[in-house]
Design brief:
By secondary structure, this protein is of the alpha+beta class. The protein has one domain. The chain is built from ten helices and ten strands. The chain has a ten-stranded antiparallel beta barrel with strand order 1-2-3-4-5-6-7-8-9-10, surrounded by four helices. This is Prenyltransferase.
Length: 298
């Protein structure tokens, strides 16, 4: 059954690649499907695209809610489509798994670039404090350097997911704030201003009225926050108060699979401006809806 599932997914991914004007790198995709195909049935699976300089270069496939006894980075290493380089990014996921309870995992791969990212989900009742994550030896020092920032904006104790991008060597910290203040115009402007990022556009201000999650991206080379992303769950991604890019419209209008009414749309604020991303679901499980976080647009 797993072979039939993965064969069908491979076919859909190839067709979706063509819709997006891309040519699938079969030598990158087949090893990933062979390594993880046995956990496909319970996974939440989606396709993701984004605007910006790298947006048209790849189409990402995201598998989340994987069993907590399957470490996707360890699988990638053992199958040879990830390689350790001696950089701290190689070690940080192991340190997280040793130090904290884990509720589940996820990973991303591109139809062009292959294996890229992993996600570690903390159990829903037990988000972790940023300060404890900052104690890990391989965590970027920028996490420690921004502890006061996270405290001031009311998210320091509620990290629910950590994402690691291996090619880009970045870490994402995800939050579902209990207070809406960070999404309101005053809180939004204060958050971005203190992070040294541009003022929010009027469209982003309106978008954040519907936001449920926020995440920050940090790296090992800088003390600053690289970008901040806000996420909205929606059944009508092209009806949001932001202008979707051409690639996003293609995925929404022409995806060769029934996405239903499940989308997560994200807007990232960077020093270069605002960029958009969308997650369109290929396989969904209603039982996990309450467990999903901003990772779905990350």
């Amino acid at each position: 059954m797993s072979e039939a599932r993965t064969a069908k997914f491979h076919s859909v991914a190839e067709e979706t690649s063509r819709v997006m004007g891309l040519s699938m790198a079969h030598d990158k995709v087949r090893p990933v499907l062979a390594a993880y195909g046995h956990v496909m049935a319970p996974a939440v699976i989606s396709f993701r695209t984004q605007t910006g300089p790298r947006g048209a270069d790849d189409l990402d496939c995201r598998w989340t809610m994987l069993p907590k006894d399957l470490d996707p980075y360890a699988v990638a290493l053992s199958n040879g489509f990830a390689t350790e380089t001696g950089h701290p990014v190689d070690r940080v996921s192991r340190e997280i798994h040793q130090a904290f309870p884990v509720g589940g995992y996820g990973f991303d791969f591109g139809v062009v670039g292959g294996f890229k990212k992993t996600w570690t989900f903390f159990p829903a009742p037990a988000p972790q404090p940023v300060a404890r994550l900052a104690e890990l030896p391989s965590m970027p020092r920028s996490v420690t350097g921004n502890l006061a920032f996270f405290e001031r904006h009311g998210v320091a104790g509620i990290v629910n997911t950590v994402g690691i991008d291996y090619p880009k060597r970045t870490v994402n910290l995800y939050f579902n704030p209990s207070s809406p203040e960070v999404f309101r115009p005053k809180g939004l402007r204060a958050l971005l201003s203190e992070a040294g990022l541009p003022e929010p556009s009027e469209a982003l201000t309106r978008f954040c009225e519907q936001a449920f999650s926020v995440y920050t991206t940090l790296n090992w080379e800088s003390s600053t926050i690289e970008r901040i992303t806000f996420s909205v769950r929606t059944t009508d991604p092209l009806g949001l108060p932001v202008k979707a890019g051409e690639g996003i419209e293609k995925l929404v209008r022409h995806a060769p699979y029934p996405a239903g009414d499940q989308y997560v749309y994200g807007v990232s604020v960077t020093p270069l401006g605002e960029f958009h991303k969308i997650q369109s679901y290929y396989q969904w499980h209603a039982r996990v809806e309450s467990m999903l976080s901003a990772v779905d647009a990350g």
